[in-house]
Amino acid sequence: MAIRVVNHAAAYLGIAQANLVNLLNPEAIILGGSIPSMCSTYVQTATKVMKQRSMMALSAGIAVDTAVLSEIGGALGAINFALDRHFSFTMIQ
C-alpha cells in the first residue's frame, strides 16, 4: 500500500515535471525536500513519467537530481539573486 502511494505521488510529480519541460525547456530539474532525498524510487518514478509525457527532443538531455543543500538551498538562492541584482563586478573593481 505504501509503495503504491509513493508511486502515485511520484507520477503526479512526473506530470508536473513534464509540463515544466514542455513549457520552459530547462537544462536540469533539482528536487528538494525530504522525500526526494530519502526515496530514490520516488525520483526514479517521477523521472520516468516525465520522460514519457514530455516531448522527447526536450527531455532527452535533462538531468533530474536531488538537492544537495537541503534546508538552506532556498536561502542561498535568494542571497545569490539579491547580489546579482544589486551588485556587479564592475562596482567592486
TrEMBL record:
InterPro entries: ATPase_NBD, ROK. It comes from the Bacteria. Gene3D superfamilies: 3.30.420.40. Belongs to the ROK (NagC/XylR) family. This is ROK family protein. It comes from Paenibacillus solisilvae. The lineage of its organism: Bacteria, Bacillati, Bacillota, Bacilli, Bacillales.
